[in-house]
Amino acid sequence: MAVKLLGSIFIPVSRLEASIEFYTNHLKLTCRGIEEWGDGQRGATLFVSNSPAGAAMITLAETKEPFMVSDRPWFNFSCSDATEMHRLLQAHGCRVTELVSWDSPWNRHWMFDLYDPDGHPINLIEMIPIDAPVV
């Protein structure tokens, strides 16, 4: 028996509908619907539209209890054209960090953090292989 893939990352949220709207409108994730988990608990699983069938990305878990918001991202999303994404998110009034670029021996990286309605930072990163032409 072995792990096959990451099933989902659970993110505590205070307002489920507002969080669904944020993740679907700004990150273009697909929500399969709100689930009732019993005892008044609700959640929603969101996917990247081109992910393999059944591969969950994140689950928004609504809670009425106080929860910790990390000052550092717990995960990142690989994206294309991070520069344009950064510009568009700023234009839509989203809270983002500065766009930064750095190189590793393998890739050129463009990245920034985006903050969801509860203040969770989400890292967005574009990685371009060093030997690829820069556009």
Main attributes?
single chain; about 140 residues; alpha/beta; 2,3-Dihydroxybiphenyl 1,2-Dioxygenase, domain 1; 2 domains; 4-stranded mixed sheet; 2 helices; about 15% helix; Glyas_Fos-R_dOase_dom; VOC family protein; Glyas_Bleomycin-R_OHBP_Dase
Would you give an account of this structure?
- Residues 5-127 form the VOC domain.
- This is VOC family protein.
- By secondary structure, the protein is of the alpha/beta class.
- The protein has two domains: 1-63, 2,3-Dihydroxybiphenyl 1,2-Dioxygenase, domain 1 (Roll); 72-135, 2,3-Dihydroxybiphenyl 1,2-Dioxygenase, domain 1, CATH 3.10.180.
- Helices cover 16% and strands 38% of the residues.
- It has two helices and eight strands; from the N terminus they run βαββββαβββ.
- The chain has a four-stranded mixed sheet, with helices on one face.
- Strand 7 (107-115) and strand 8 form a beta hairpin.
- It is globular, with a radius of gyration of 16 Å.
- The mean pLDDT is 91.
The helix count comes to 2
Largest sheet, in brief, is: 4 strands, mixed
The coarse silhouette is globular
Strand content: 35-45%
Considering the protein shown, what is the CATH homologous superfamily of the largest domain? 2,3-Dihydroxybiphenyl 1,2-Dioxygenase, domain 1
Q: Kindly report how far apart the N and C termini lie.
A: 44 Å
CATH fold label of the largest domain: 2,3-Dihydroxybiphenyl 1,2-Dioxygenase, domain 1
State the domain count. Answer: 2
**Rg over C-alpha atoms, rounded to the nearest angstrom:** 16 Å
CATH architectural category of the largest domain: Roll
Q: Would you list the SSEs in sequence order as H and E? A: EHEEEEHEEE
In terms of per-residue confidence, which ranges show pLDDT below 50 for 5 or more consecutive residues?
none
Helical content class: 10-25%
Structural class: alpha/beta
Mean pLDDT across residues: 91
